[in-house]
Amino acid sequence: MGIAEDPKEQRWISPRELDYLLKESKVGQQQSGKNAPAPLKEMMLSVPLWSCHVALCANTFGFFIIGLTLPTFIDKTLHYGILKVST
Question: 60 and 53 in contact (C-beta within 8 Å)?
Fold first, then answer.
């Protein structure tokens, strides 16, 4: 269909895009032997990675607090006893 293994085989790519992909990027270049090592230092210093981590921690903390305080809120504010409602 519209997917190819190599940019050279792609029918829908313009010559300008193909030239950019072959010259500027590493598309199609294979490393001999082993896989390339993961850039751990760059990943640990990455602002987007840390922002995702902070967002995950804040989300987890929020759900924990809601789960912890919701029964008390229902009992004290809404005056529904958890045991009375559950039966």
Answer: no
Q: Identify residue 72 by its one-letter amino acid code.
A: T
- 71, 79 in Cβ contact below 8 A? no
Cα-based torsion angle of the residue sequence 49, 53, 59, 64 in order, rounded to the nearest 10 degrees: 170
Taking CA atoms, 41 is separated from 5, 31, 44, 49, 79, in Å, by 30, 21, 5, 12, 53
Give yes or no for residue 27 having a pLDDT over 70. Answer: no
29 neighbors 7 (Cβ within 8 angstroms): no
- Residue entry with tokens 């997917």: 3
Closest C-alpha to 69, from 30, 5, 78: 78
Segments making up each domain of the chain, as ranges: 1-32, 37-87
How far is C-alpha 52 from the geometric centre of its chain's CA atoms? 8
pTM confidence score = 0.52
